[in-house]
Amino acid sequence: MGPPILSELQEAVERQRRIRIRLALAAYAYEYDNDSIMSDAEFDWLADQVIPSIATGHDKMDKFFKEVFIPDSGMWVRNHPELDKLEKLYKSLRKRGVL
After folding, report:
1. CB burial readout 31-68, b (16+ within 10 A) else e
2. In whole angstroms, what separates CA 3 from the centre of its chain?
3. pTM for the model
4. DSSP per residue, 3-51
5. Residues contacting 19, CB < 8 A, separation 6+
6. What is the C-alpha separation between 64 and 58, in angstroms, rounded?
7. What percent of the chain has pLDDT over 70?
8. Does pLDDT of 89 surpass 90?
9. Do the beta carbons of residue 19 and residue 50 sit within 8 Å?
10. Is the per-residue pLDDT at 1 higher than 80?
């Protein structure tokens, strides 16, 4: 078996982006709004799916997930480098009833 083909790499990158966003939203909701938007089991499972070595093309966030992210806690979200954007996204999704 040879190296992964480009579409497999793109799929892995996109999957990591989505996982990291969902996880950050859940951590934000819980830590800042006392809002459990997913179960602890789902959060733990999702956190275990994060592969910090996969670069997503967002250098600041890639560095954050390599250096700060801890899969067994949501406290890391307090050091999120784009906390203002995360807050805005959370509030927008909550207002629209998506979360």
Report:
1. beeeeebbeeeebeebbeeeebebebeeeebbebbeee
2. 27
3. 0.89
4. SPPHHHHHHHHHHHHHHHHHHHHHHHHHHHH---SS-HHHHHHHHHT--
5. 46, 49, 50
6. 10
7. 95
8. yes
9. yes
10. no
**Residue 5 pLDDT class (50, 70, 90 cuts):** low
pLDDT of residue 4: 63
Task: Quote the tokens at residue 95.
Answer: 């207002």
- Estimate to the nearest angstrom the gap between the alpha carbon of 96 and the chain centroid: 20
Residue the block writes with tokens 């994060």: 50
Structure tokens at 80: 């999120």
Q: How far apart are CA 12 and CA 66, in angstroms?
A: 16
Fill in the DSSP letter of residue 98: -
Question: Residue for token digits 């801890």?
Answer: 70
Q: Which amino acid is at 14?
A: E
